[in-house]
Specification:
By secondary structure, the chain is an alpha/beta fold. It has 11 helices and 14 strands. The protein binds adenosine-5'-triphosphate (ATP). One of its GO terms (molecular function) is ATP hydrolysis activity.
Length: 309
C-alpha cells in the first residue's frame, strides 16, 4: 500500500460535507462512513450530487463546508498528497490518447501517478487486456477503452477506489468479469465506491449503498435493510391449476393482498412483509389448486423510486 494512512481509520469518512455553486446546493450536509473492504454504491438521479461528492473525496473540488478523510488523511490536508497515491479513480468519461497503445497509456499514467512501471502489465491483465496491450487505443472498442480506464485506476495498487459509472459501454460478459475483479480486490481489503444508474446491476453486488437526492443522503444501508426499512410490499406470484383457480380467487378475497392481477390461471399480487407467512399458509392449504408459488423481494429500483422521488 502506498501513501501515508491511518490503518485503523475508516476508508472514507465525511462529516457535514457541503458544496454550493452559487444558489445550487450540489451536496448538502453529507455524513458518511465507509469501512475498509466494503463495496459501496452511490446512486441518485442526474444532478443528485454524486460526481461532486466524488470529486470532493478526491480533492479535485474544495467543499464549501465539512471534513473529508480518506484512510484517516484529511482531503486537502498536508499529508493528503501522499495519501492520494493510495486512491484510484475511474472518471465517468475517461480521456485517452488514441495514438498510444494500451501499455504505453498505462506507462504514461503510471509516471504521472508515481506508480511502479511493473504495475502496468498486472493492471492490464486484471482487466483482461493483455492480448491488446500493444494495439493503439484508437483501435479499441468502447468497452476496451472503459477497461483501460479501469486499469489506470488500479495503478499504484490503491486501497480505495472511486469508480464513476464503471460499466458504461461494457457488454454483459465484461460486466460480469468487472464485478469478479472487484470481488478479488475486495478480498485483498480494497474499498470501492461505485456510482451507477443501472440499479439491477448494483443490487446484488454492493454491501451497502447510499441513495442521494438534491445533494443529501436520503437512505443508507444494505439493499435488504432499505427494503425492510421502507416496508415495501413483496410481490407474490401464484400459478393455479385450471380447476383450482376459482378456489384461489375465493381465498384471495379474505387475504391481506393488494393489486391482484390475473392472467389466465397466473396471479400476481402485492403483500406486506409481515403478512407473508399467513398468506403463504392460506395458499398452501388449498393443496393441488396451487401449482406454483413465488415470492419476490422488491428490487433496488422499487427502493429507489420509493425514496429518491
Ligand atoms: N462546476 C459546477 N458549476 C456549477 N454547478 C455545478 C457544477 N458541478 C455540478 N454542478 C451542479 O451541482 C448539482 C450536482 O451535480 P453532479 O454532477 O454532482 O450530479 P450527479 O449526481 O453526479 O449527476 P449525474 O448522474 O448526471 O452524473 C447539479 O445541479 C449540477 O448542475
Amino acid at each position: 500500500m502506498q501513501g501515508s494512512t491511518d490503518t485503523a481509520a475508516p476508508a472514507v469518512s465525511l462529516r457535514g460535507v457541503s458544496k454550493r455553486y452559487g444558489a445550487v446546493r450540489a451536496v448538502d450536509g453529507v455524513d458518511l462512513e465507509i469501512p475498509r473492504g466494503e463495496v459501496f454504491g452511490l446512486i441518485g438521479h442526474n444532478g443528485a450530487g454524486k460526481s461532486t461528492l466524488f470529486k470532493m473525496m478526491l480533492g479535485l473540488v474544495t467543499p464549501s463546508a465539512g471534513d473529508i478523510r480518506i484512510q484517516g488523511s484529511a482531503v486537502g490536508g498536508r499529508d493528503f498528497r501522499s495519501a492520494r497515491r493510495g486512491i484510484g479513480y475511474l472518471p465517468e468519461n475517461v480521456v485517452l490518447y488514441d495514438n498510444l497503445s494500451g501499455l504505453e497509456t498505462l506507462r504514461f499514467m503510471a509516471r504521472l501517478k508515481g506508480a511502479h512501471r511493473n504495475d502496468c502489465e498486472a493492471a492490464l491483465e486484471r482487466v483482461g487486456l493483455t492480448e491488446s496491450a500493444s494495439r493503439a487505443v484508437r483501435e479499441y472498442s468502447k468497452g476496451m477503452r472503459q477497461r483501460l480506464g479501469f486499469a489506470q485506476a488500479l495503478l499504484g495498487r490503491p486501497q480505495v477506489l472511486f469508480l464513476d459509472e464503471p460499466t458504461t459501454g461494457l457488454d454483459p460478459e465484461a460486466i460480469r468479469a468487472f464485478y469478479a475483479t472487484l470481488r478479488g480486490l475486495q478480498s485483498e481489503g480494497v474499498t470501492m465506491v461505485i456510482t451507477s444508474h443501472i440499479l439491477a446491476e448494483l443490487q446484488e453486488r454492493v454491501d451497502r449503498l447510499a441513495i442521494m437526492a438534491a445533494g443529501k443522503v436520503q437512505a443508507l444501508g444494505s439493499v435488504q435493510q432499505l427494503r425492510e426499512r421502507m416496508a415495501l410490499p413483496l410481490l407474490l406470484e401464484v400459478r393455479a391449476s385450471e380447476s383450482g383457480a376459482a378456489a384461489v380467487r375465493d381465498a384471495l378475497a379474505s387475504l391481506p393482498v393488494s393489486e391482484a392481477q390475473w392472467q389466465g390461471t397466473h396471479l400476481q399480487a402485492r403483500c406486506a412483509r409481515e403478512a407473508k407467512m399467513p398468506v403463504l399458509a392460506a395458499l398452501l392449504a388449498l393443496g393441488a389448486a396451487v401449482l406454483d408459488l413465488k415470492v419476490h423481494e422488491p428490487s433496488l429500483e422499487d427502493v429507489f423510486f420509493g425514496c429518491a422521488d
